[in-house]
Amino acid sequence: MHVKLADESVCIGPPPAAESYLNIPRLLAACEITGADAIHPGYGFLSENARFAEILEEHGITFIGPTSEHIRIMGDKIQAKETAKQLGIPVVPGSDGAITNEVQAQRVAKSIGFPVLVKAAAGGGGRGMKVARTAEDLDIALKTARAEAKAAFGDDSVYLEKYLSHPRHIEIQVFGDGKGNAIHLGERDCSLQRRHQKVLEEAPSPALNAEARDKIGMTVARAMQKIKYRGAGTVEFLYEDGEFYFIEMNTRLQVEHPVTEMITGLDLVLEQIRIAAGHPLSLTQEEVTFSGHAIECRICAENPTTFRPSPGRITYWHPPGGLGVRVDSGAYQGYRIPPNYDSLIGKLIVAGKNRNECLMRLRRCLSEFVIDGIETTIPLFTELVRHPDIANGTYDIHWLERHLGLKG
Predict the structure, then answer these.
(1) What is the DSSP string of 280-308?
(2) If you average pLDDT over residues 25-29, what whole number do you get?
(3) What per-residue confidence (pLDDT) applies to 124?
(4) Percent of the chain having pLDDT more than 90?
(5) N or C, which terminus of the chain has less Cβ within 10 Å?
(6) Catalytic (active site) residue 252
(7) Which stretch of DSSP H or E encloses residue 177?
(8) Pick from 182, 244, 240: nearest CA to 213
(9) Which residues are CB-neighbours of 273 under 8 A, at least 6 positions away?
(10) First to last CA, the chain
(11) Domain boundaries, the chain
C-alpha cells in the first residue's frame, strides 16, 4: 500500500531483508536516485542501528531519530542499565555487567534471589531471554540464552536480572529536541504479552494514578534533558508493588505509539520530523494534556491458538470504522502477505471517553473486522476483551501465557 500511495518508488532489492531493507548501500543509492535528504527508519530493521545513523550523517542525509551515540548506549542492555542508574532512573536488581561464567552467575543469582532472568545484552523481541527458577535451571538457561543471542544478534553476552513474579510492563513515551529540552507524553501499559512480545497495549495504564504517572514521567524527562536526547524514545519499566524498575530504552518510534497519539492529540511522527529538521519541541510539559482512554490490538497473520504464521492472499478485507476508531495497515483485499517479514498486518486502535467506553467500542470493532483467506489473531482478541481480568485491568505480564497455558 505504501508503494501504491507514493509519488515515486525505488526497488532496493529482493524480498529477503538482508538483501533489501537491511542493505545500507542500496538504501543510500535510493536516496541518491531520488534526491532524498532524510530517512525515517520506522520501527524495525535499521531503526536502532547506530552505524546506519552514522553512515547517513557521513553522507549528509538526516536520520529521523536519535544520535548514533544514544542509539549505541541504549542498544546495549548492560550499558543502558548503567546509564539509567547514573541518571537517577530506578533499575531492576541484577548483575553489574555481563556474566562471563557459571560460577559468577550462581553467585549473582544467589545474592538477588531466585527466580532470575537471563537476558541477552544486545537482545530484543524476547530472543535471548530465559528464566531460571532454581540454581539447577541456571546453567541450561545461560547456555540457551547465549546460543539464541549469538544466532539472532551475533553477540552472546548475557546478564542477570531479578525475575519479578507479577509485574506490569509500563513504558514512558519521551521526546527531546537534542538541545537539552525534553518532555514525557505519559505511559502505555503493554503487560499483555506472549513470550516477551507485546500483544495489546493501552493508555493510560489501569494500574497507575496521576501522582505515580507524573513522578516517573518527570524522572524520565529530566534524565533525557541531562543527556540532550533527540527525537522519540520509550523508556520501559517493570512495575510491581508501587515500584518502577528500568529494563530498557527503545531509541525509536514504537509499534504502539498510536495509543499515545489518541489520548494526547499529538502526531508523534510529525514531531519526529520537526525535531530532525532542527525545530524545537512544539509544546512544553505544561501544555501536554491527556484525554480519555485508548487500546491497540496487534492484528497478526497467525493462527489465534497455535500462533503459527499464516501468509497468503487476503480474499476479503473489511475493517471497522466510526468515531474513535483507527486502523493502521498496509493490507487490502487481494494483497498477498509474504513470508519474509513480521506477521503484523494491521493495528486496530480504539479510543473512548473512559476505559469502559473504549472496551465497549473495541468489542464492537472486533466483531466487525473481517479478514478472509488467511488466519488472524482477531478471534483471540475477541475472547480477551470479554475476560473479566481484562475488563477490570487486573493483569500482569504473565497473565496471557497463563491464560493460554504456555510455559514461561
Answers:
(1) PPSS-GGG----SEEEEEEEESB-TTT--
(2) 97
(3) 67
(4) 89
(5) N
(6) yes
(7) strand 168-177
(8) 244
(9) 38, 40, 64
(10) 37
(11) 93-162, 168-404
pLDDT tens by residue, 337-354: 999 999 999 999 999 999
Using the structure block, give the residue that is written with the C-alpha cell 514525557.
184
Q: Of the residues 252, 326, 355, 361, which is catalytic?
A: 252
The answer to whether 226 and 87 have CB atoms below 8 angstroms apart is: yes
The partner residues of 234 in beta bridges, in order of sequence, read: 173, 250
With pLDDT > 70 as the criterion, what percentage of the chain qualifies?
A: 99
pLDDT digits (tens, 9 = 90+) for 127-142: 789 999 999 999 999 9
55-59, 337-341, 354-358: least confidently modelled range? 337-341
**CB neighbour class for 323 (10 Å; exposed up to 12, middle 13-18, buried from 19):** exposed
Q: Is the pLDDT of residue 360 over 50?
A: yes
Please name which of 91, 25, 86 lies closest in space to residue 52, comparing C-alpha atoms.
25
Contacts of 25 (CB under 8 A, 6+ apart): none
- Around Cβ 341, how many Cβ atoms within 10 Å? 15
- Location of C-alpha cell 544478534: 153
All three cell numbers of 358, joined, read 473504549
Instruction: Name the nearest CA neighbour of 168 among 389, 407, 366.
Output: 389
pLDDT at 152: 81
**Bridge partners, 350 (sequence order):** 295, 325
CATH architecture of 93-162: 2-Layer Sandwich (3.30)
DSSP 324: T
Chain mean position to CA 148:
20
- Nearest to 404, CA basis, from 380, 369, 374, 373: 380
| Other C-beta atoms lying within 10 Å of the C-beta of residue 79 | 14
Q: Please name the amino acid found at residue 390.
A: I
Residue 92: predicted pLDDT: 87
Q: Are 333 and 355 in contact (CB under 8 A)?
A: no
